[in-house]
Inverse folding.
């Protein structure tokens, strides 16, 4: 039988002709190692026409015979077992070119190999190429992964799945030690790790990579700083890839820079402290120089024996007193005092005793007048007192009364006990004269009149005044009554903190509402009270009333501010002062922190040991102490530093002419500097105008009291006290 050679014979017999020709796959049929049937796809794949293949030995499409034989040997048992044989071999096209082909073969009848084999061929060259490319790419990537100079870790569920040798080297581990272990092992502390986890979660939620700088731990336990950049692998749950860079060097450099900066700052701070100390010293020197100058001036203007102002200074002071009285439309008084029978004492007991007596008299006289008044020694046994700015001749009566009283007790001297009495003549400006010469002459005349009327008394130059004088003898008596019958009242003046535009305190100022004479100023009756001892009950009343009033304001919702209460020297020296302050605070239910006591320099310097003890007790309680009228007395800086005082109130005398008098500017500047270096609060009293305010602000003072903001007001004017018109934006209840 002729072998069937025409294409399609077998397939058509098998009913597969259409399928074979249209299959996207090479199909051939071999029998006896020759091509028996070949479809178009297959012939094309091999670069032949189908006819060129039919009947040809199958070996022709293999690169060489060995390949063919080897394939045959491999295929034979599989085919004989009736199974499908799979192979991938290189085939040769007609033009000699080669290609990779994937083959599947099956025997038509495994029992009779002679019946032929059916082969399916697929050109896999392209597939191979793609695979090769992929392999190359993977190899390249591995090369990079293995050799890149940055640590890379691939993590799943916070466990390291893969990492590169650089990371291993950086951390001192082997790659194998890291893989499969929790990422936590790389971090220095649990806190650092948690910070990393939280920061990463936050960044990933925003779709951003997470960048953190953290200390990591090496295998040997040492630490290094690293910068980590982590990204979530898209579409892979919680797979994260992190790159890790050792930034220890950079970090060390930064730390070094910070260290240098800190050193620099410390140096600056040191220099600042040194400078501050130098400034403080300079201020002290200025202050001490001012004081030295003042002492020199005082020597030239004071009497060597008694220390009182001499004639020259008296002349100055009287001139000032008259100018001031004229400007303020007030009165002033000149008192001429002559000691009765001094000449005979001097003659009989000697000059030394006379001198001692004069000193004692001078001391007593000084104690009866206000600080503003002038007590001078005019010569021999003559003294002249100038009373500045008095409201009426009554004030002179008061002083004259006190002079008589204060000189009445006998003086104990080395020479024995001596009684001395004065004759006092008084001339009042402008009633008895418009100028110093006239007033001195008339006071002298009045003094002779006093001598003529039996000595140890006083006389006014004018008859009319003499008559009036008797009406005021009982000033003290009336003051006592005033205290008993509630004629005293308090006015309040706000203390201003200009920086906060707020009221920062309240000074209580006592007034005497006399049914006959109306409101009497404390300047007039405090000295009487002080002299007579009435100041003690009066002072307690002031303290209690001021504290109770402040409490009432607090209950009404007004801002919490401390109330300031003035203490006269006698009050401050009173033995049970601290006890009575404590008791009154308790009675009125006020904390000590809401009380400020104002004392003068003279109170402070009286007895330094006792003063220190008293101030310490007050400070321990929490009561604040201010030095009132600062600058008018003599304060030793050394003591001032030691006393626990909190505030200096610059006397209004320095503020008054601040805009015109450079000396006042110098003094206020020095006081501000002192307060600053001693860390004391500072307030300027008596601010009456915007110009004064401007100068003070320019000098660095920020707290004020004065008519410019508010006069002292009765408690009922509470609105104006807590919100003086000059302040805006004050807190209201
Ligand atoms: P101080 O403690 O220095 O009180 C300030 C005085 O200056 C008050 O006089 C006040 O009215 C006045 N003042 C306030 N601002 C200005 C201003 O801008 N210009 C002028 N020219 N004066 C201003 P006041 O109320 O007549 O009191 C005089 C002194 O009497 C007080 O001086 C204080 O030393 C004493 N004083 C007042 N109340 C008491 C008290 O309750 N107890 C004691 N021991 N002394 C008191
Ligand atoms: Mg005061
Ligand atoms: Mg004052």
């Amino acid at each position: 039988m002729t072998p069937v050679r025409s294409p399609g014979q077998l397939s058509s017999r098998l009913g597969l002709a259409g399928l074979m020709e249209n299959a996207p796959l090479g199909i051939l049929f071999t029998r006896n190692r020759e091509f028996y049937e070949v479809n178009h796809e297959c012939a094309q794949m091999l670069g032949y026409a189908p006819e060129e293949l039919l009947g040809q030995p199958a070996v022709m499409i293999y690169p060489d015979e060995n390949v063919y034989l080897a394939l045959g040997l491999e295929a034979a048992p599989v085919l004989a077992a009736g199974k499908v044989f799979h192979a991938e071999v290189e085939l040769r096209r007609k033009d000699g070119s080669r290609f990779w082909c994937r083959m599947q073969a099956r025997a038509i009848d495994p029992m009779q190999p002679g019946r032929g084999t059916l082969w399916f061929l697929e050109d896999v060259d392209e597939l191979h190429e793609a695979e090769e490319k992929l392999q190359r790419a993977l190899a390249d990537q591995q090369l990079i992964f293995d050799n890149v100079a940055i640590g890379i870790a691939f993590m799943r569920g916070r466990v390291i799945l893969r990492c590169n040798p650089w990371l291993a080297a950086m951390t001192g581990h082997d790659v194998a030690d890291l893989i499969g272990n929790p990422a936590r092992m790389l971090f220095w502390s649990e806190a650092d790790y948690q910070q990393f986890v939280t920061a990463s979660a936050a960044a990933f939620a925003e779709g951003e990579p997470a960048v953190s700088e953290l200390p990591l731990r090496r295998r040997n336990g040492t630490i290094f700083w690293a910068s980590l950049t982590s990204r979530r692998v898209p579409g892979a749950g919680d797979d994260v890839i992190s790159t890790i860079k050792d930034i220890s060097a950079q970090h060390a450099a930064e730390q070094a820079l910070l260290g240098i900066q800190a050193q620099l700052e410390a140096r600056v701070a040191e220099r600042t402290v040194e400078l501050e100390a130098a400034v403080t010293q300079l201020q002290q020197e200025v202050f001490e120089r001012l004081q030295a100058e003042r002492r020199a001036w005082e020597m030239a203007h004071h009497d060597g024996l008694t220390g009182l102002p001499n004639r020259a200074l008296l002349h100055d002071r009287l001139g000032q007193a008259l100018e001031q009285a004229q400007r303020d439309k007030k009165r002033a008084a000149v008192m001429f005092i002559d000691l009765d029978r001094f000449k005979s004492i001097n003659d009989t007991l000697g000059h030394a005793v006379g001198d001692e007596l004069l000193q004692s008299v001078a001391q007593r006289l000084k104690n009866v007048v206000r600080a503003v008044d002038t007590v001078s020694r005019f010569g021999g046994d003559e003294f002249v007192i100038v009373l500045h700015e008095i409201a009426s001749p009554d004030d002179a009566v008061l002083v004259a009364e006190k002079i008589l009283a204060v000189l009445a007790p006998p003086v104990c001297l080395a020479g024995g006990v001596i009684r001395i009495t004065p004759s006092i003549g008084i001339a009042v400006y402008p009633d008895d004269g418009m100028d110093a010469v006239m007033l001195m002459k008339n006071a002298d005349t009045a003094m002779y009149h006093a001598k003529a009327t039996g000595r140890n008394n006083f006389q006014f130059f004018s008859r009319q005044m003499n008559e009036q004088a008797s009406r005021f003898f009982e000033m003290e008596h009336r003051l006592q009554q005033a205290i008993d019958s509630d004629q005293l009242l308090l006015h309040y003046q706000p203390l201003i903190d200009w920086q906060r535009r707020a009221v920062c305190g309240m000074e209580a100022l006592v007034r005497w509402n006399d049914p006959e004479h109306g409101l009497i100023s404390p300047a007039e009756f405090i000295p009487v009270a002080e002299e007579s001892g009435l100041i003690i009950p009066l002072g307690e009343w002031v303290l209690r009333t001021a504290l109770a009033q402040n409490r009432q304001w607090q209950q009404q919702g007004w801002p919490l501010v401390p109330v300031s209460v003035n203490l006269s020297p006698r009050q401050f020296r009173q033995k049970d002062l601290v006890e009575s302050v404590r008791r009154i605070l308790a009675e009125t239910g006020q904390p000590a922190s809401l009380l400020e006591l104002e004392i003068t320099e003279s109170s402070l310097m009286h007895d330094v040991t006792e003063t220190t003890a008293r101030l310490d007790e007050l400070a321990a309680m929490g009561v604040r102490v201010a030095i009132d009228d600062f600058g008018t007395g003599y304060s030793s800086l050394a003591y001032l530093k030691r006393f626990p005082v909190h505030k200096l109130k610059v006397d209004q005398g320095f503020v008054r002419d601040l805009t015109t008098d450079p000396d006042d500017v110098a003094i206020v500047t020095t006081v501000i500097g002192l307060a600053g270096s001693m860390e004391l609060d500072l307030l300027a009293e008596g601010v009456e105008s915007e110009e004064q305010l401007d100068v003070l602000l320019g000098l660095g003072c920020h707290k004020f009291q004065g008519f410019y903001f508010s006069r002292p007001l009765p408690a009922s004017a509470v609105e104006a006290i807590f919100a003086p018109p000059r302040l805006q934006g004050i807190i209201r209840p």
